[in-house]
Amino acid sequence: MSDKDALIQPDRGQQAIAIHLVDKDGLDEFLKSCTVPQRAALAAQKFKADGYSHAILPSEDGEGWAVVAGVANSASLSNWCMAKLAEVLPAGTYRRIGGEPGPALFGWITGQYRFERYLSEPGAEGPRILLTSEPKAIPEVLAQADATALVRDMVNTPAEDMGPAELEARAETLASTFGAQLRVTRGDMLEREFPMVHMVGRAAARSHAPRMIEMEWGDPAHPRVAIVGKGVCFDSGGLDIKPASGMLLMKKDMGGAAHALALAQLVMGNGLPVRLHVLVPAVENAVSSNAFRPGDVLRSRAGISVEIGNTDAEGRLILGDALTRAGEETPELVIDFATLTGAARVAVGPDLPALFARRDETAQALLEAGEQVDDPCWRLPLFDGYREYLKSDIADINNSGSSGFAGASTAALFLDRFVPKDVDWAHFDTFAWRPAAKPGRPKGGDALGLRAAWRMLAQRYR
């Protein structure tokens, strides 16, 4: 990706190629303002002002050119309405005519994201720069685009290069940048303090050994907020091994950790007045002679015994220990992110994170925040009646539901058991992946629910 700081710049009257945004209702009026040759050019390109469409408009003197692009509503722009232009136009500097880009600045940047770490010959195209007369908006847009790129980069990186040690290194970089305190628990101490994290990760090679990563930042007098992210750097399924097709994308199973670190970056970078506690249990769910087994009973940090009904339901185990640790500090709010269940994807598809929350007002605030920033979520129920699906004959709880029903809800109910009852808690079951490209959102790793959570936190604590 090009240097994000260069992709949007203050408009100081510099030379730039004009962009006209036109919706279907305004097309006839726009055509009246065009010259005959310009109307002929638009007709030849079959421009109908459809969303994400564009056409090249020759200048009146024939020496230059401009762009006309179709949008759904030229008076109310989305994050993504100009993103396609950022992907397909030639390198250069551009200016919207007749208004500000506003929220479209974000999509302009994210549309130019490229993951080129492993390419022998990365793309050599120069940047497309968009000007704005609202320079005060630039830092916030850049911060959100940078956080989104962090999630994308981490999720796109293969597991060999994004294991528990690399998650720790990312957290260490953030801690160093913002003056946070970092604590990493490994080895024998991990087994004592976070037994489920240890058990899930103990079959991995020493280079991918499990650990609990904790980071604290901010004034202790401020409201305490915990952010937890599932850090399963690769999920083979364990002894309940996945088929090859199910394992192919499992480098993305640390997407929750990527979201947690990116959200922490936004919180710290914006100086939000909170006492931040970030927790990332980092493991690889591998197959080896010492892998945990179906039928085993694990003890947890909370003292709750857990029977293993399925070793492929490992994410909720490590999150259980992390949520317990978060709750010990009496937080005002806990938010966790996890690529937790396929059931959530069946329910709401790849684009919508499934949101679970104890308090209606918190859920509503997150849903509204998501709509405001084009990062929508969808609430699913924490229905008490489904707790019976997690019953065990020999332990306090089973990690795998006894029914094929309500898989996302039963997974969330498992997590709920490890969060203190009086704590405001929200859980994102996110995909962290785009199976098909959309304007501003390339195929591959992506942040889904990140900006909704950030907007809610900013509105709640600023």
From TrEMBL:
Species of origin: Novosphingobium rhizovicinum
Keywords of this entry: Aminopeptidase, Hydrolase, Manganese, Protease
The family this protein is said to belong to: Belongs to the peptidase M17 family.
InterPro entries hit by this protein: Leucine_aapep/pepB (IPR011356), Macro_dom-like (IPR043472), Peptidase_M17_C (IPR000819), Peptidase_M17_N_1 (IPR048816)
One family name in Pfam for this protein: Peptidase_M17
Keyword Protease: yes
SUPFAM superfamilies: Zn-dependent exopeptidases
Highest taxon above the source species: Bacteria
Name of the molecule in the record: M17 family metallopeptidase
Residue intervals of the Cytosol aminopeptidase domain: 310-317
